[in-house]
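queue> holo job accepted (3-isopropylmalic acid)
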Amino acid sequence: MTEQYLITLLPGDGIGPEITKVTVEVLKAIAPKFDLELSFQEGLIGGAAIDATGNPLPEETLTMCRQSDAVLLAAIGGYQWDSLPRQQRPETGLLGLREGLGLFANLRPATIFPQLIDASTLKPEVIQGVDLMVVRELTGGIYFGQPKGIFTSETNEKRGVNTMAYRESEVDRIAKVAFEIAQKRTKKLCSVDKANVLDVSQLWRDRVTAMAANYPDVELSHLYVDNAAMQLIRNPRQFDTIVTGNLFGDILSDEAAMLTGSIGMLPSASLGATGPGVFEPVHGSAPDIAGQDLANPLAMVLSAAMLLRYGLNQDLAATAIEKAVWQVLEAGIRTGDIMSPGMVQVGCQGMGEALLEAL
Ligand code: IPM
Ligand code: MG
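queue> job finished
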């Protein structure tokens, strides 16, 4: 029986549109093989939305997303919007999307492709076999806590304020997601906080520790974030699943990405309790290489695989995409960011063609 799904595409800014094009071609090629009927609608977000409507997240976009089965987002942002007031910046649109869809759980896997081991700046013996999952809380913490803003005191000095806050229920629900993911992986969970200094982290640690009683098969450990940042470089193989708050997760997931050689390879999934998830590459909009057919579309293609797996429950189709990526890398085909001597360099479009061939 054919299954029908509606996917909202949010190409956004910079390299967004070109990597979206390749990814949609891949999805269209895979769909009939697994009896899927995918239809696509396109919405505005980020700088593109600011230019068209003055708003980085038009209400219409949010409505479209809510009505679809899953959202595939490319990237947002660019220099030309960086000096706008915060409410009109591309990043505010992305945060609004996360908040509007209630996407509290952000899954960022960092897996080494053995073919790319030489593309990492780290020694092969350190990164060989790395396979970890960062579970980042995405709709709370210092990104959303109140009060926030730039305030002027009586002495006329400005003071910038953000608030790092977590409620028990917010910690509990992300901890639950992380424990369940750890259960499906190697049953090792490391919670990262700054409980030696921050009260919000103490509460975080207490709740995660309490939750562990429900998951006796999962081995829970805790690390302070500074130590975690160091351990990720020193011995990344000690990690399997990492759970952490919004800000620490933002930073550690970029660090974890670089273990794998290029941030151009890493997908992510953002999920809520109900409703459509948002699937997007971890990397940004790379305005410096936009429109030049230089971008690596693989992170977005792998995000489409996550969309099939976590968003539509189509595990086989997801695996087929991942296999195609594997095959293309095996064949020595590389974009500039993952290029190494003796390989064949292609552009964004060329990578797309290679994937279609592999499929
Ligand atoms: C990410 C990005 C975003 C974040 C920015 C673009 C708002 O860095 O998804 O990691 O900080 O969450
Ligand atoms: Mg980030």
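queue> The chain has a mean pLDDT of 96.
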